[in-house]
Amino acid sequence: MGIFTIFKKIVKTIRFPNSRSLSSDTSHDLVTTLWECDFLTPIKEFLERGNARVLDVATGRGTWVLECAEKYPWSNFTGVDASLNFPSVANINLMNATFLQSDVLDRLLFDDNTFDFVHIRCITLIFTDQQWENKVLKELIRVCKPGGWIELVVSDHAGYINQGPTHAHLCETAGIFFSGHDLVTIAGENIAYYLKKEGQVTEINEEIRIVPYYGSRLGRAFADHLIKFIHAYKDLLATYMGFDDQGWEDNVKLIKRELSEYRTESIMRRVYCKKIDPEQDLV
Ligand SMILES: C[S@@+](CC[C@H](N)C(=O)[O-])C[C@H]1O[C@@H](n2cnc3c(N)ncnc32)[C@H](O)[C@@H]1O
C-alpha cells in the first residue's frame, strides 16, 4: 500500500493587532490636549439646540461619547465598537448616551442617512488602505444624513520627523512585513483624498498637529503611548526581526531613549467634511 502524504497549506491571516491593549482614555487625553476641543466641525450650536443624532465609530471605552453627551444633554450620542470595551447600560448615568456592538467592516447597524454627525478617532494601524477606501469611509458616509457632517482624527504613517536609527529600522522593517501581508495603511495622509474621491462630500477641511515624543509632560505621554503601541506589535514583529524576548525589550528601550534624544515628532490630522445634500448643495 502506498504511502500518501497529505500536504496541508497552512494559511495564516495576519491582521493589525486590535488595539484593545491600548487605553483609549490615553488617546482621548492626548487628542483633546492637542486640539483643546471635542470636534472641529461647526456643529456646536446645532448640538446645543438639541435632537441631533451623533455617532462615534470605534468608540473604545466611549469616553468621547460620554463627555459630549454630558455637554450637550439635548442631543443623542451613540458609540459603536467591534469589542465590548464600552460601559454597559447599567453603568451609564446619561439618558442620551447609548453603546452598541457593531463592526464597521461588516456593515453598521443603522439605516442610510441616520446621523447628523459621524465621528471616528484614534484608529491608527487598525484598517488597511483598502478597508478605509472600500468599507470604512463608505459606511461613515452612508449612515450620515445629507447635509450632515463627518469628522476623522487620524495619524500619518509614512514618516516621522527626526527619527533615531533604531526606530527608523523598526518602521522600515514593519513596513516591509506589512506590505508583504497586504497590510498597507497610509490612509492618514490620504484621508481627504479618499473622501473627495467618494464624490459624496463637500467642504473638506483638514487641520494638522505636530505630535512631539520628547520634552514636556505631553511629549512624554505621547512617547509612552507610542511605546505601548510598538509593544502591541511584538507578536507580529519580534520573530520576523530576529529578536528573542530580551532582545525585543532592549530594542524598545533603545527606541524610547531615541525618541527624546532625536526629538522625534509625527503628524496627526483632523479632517471634517459635509455630506452633499442634493437639494441644497450644487453637485
Ligand atoms: C485605540 S481605540 C480608540 C477608541 C476611541 N476612538 C477613542 O478615541 O478613545 C480603537 C478601537 O477601535 C475598535 N475597532 C477595531 N476594529 C474595529 C471595527 N472593525 N469596527 C469597529 N470598531 C473597531 C477597537 O475595538 C478599539 O476599541
TrEMBL record:
Organism: Rhizophagus clarus
Pfam families, sorted: Methyltransf_25 (PF13649)
A GO BP annotation: methylation
Keyword Transferase in annotation: yes
Cross-referenced InterPro entries: Methyltransf_25 (IPR041698), SAM-dependent_MTases_sf (IPR029063)
Keyword entries, A-Z: Methyltransferase, Transferase
Name of the protein in question: S-adenosyl-L-methionine-dependent methyltransferase
Domain Methyltransferase: 54-148
CDD domains named in the record: AdoMet_MTases
Listed GO MF terms: methyltransferase activity
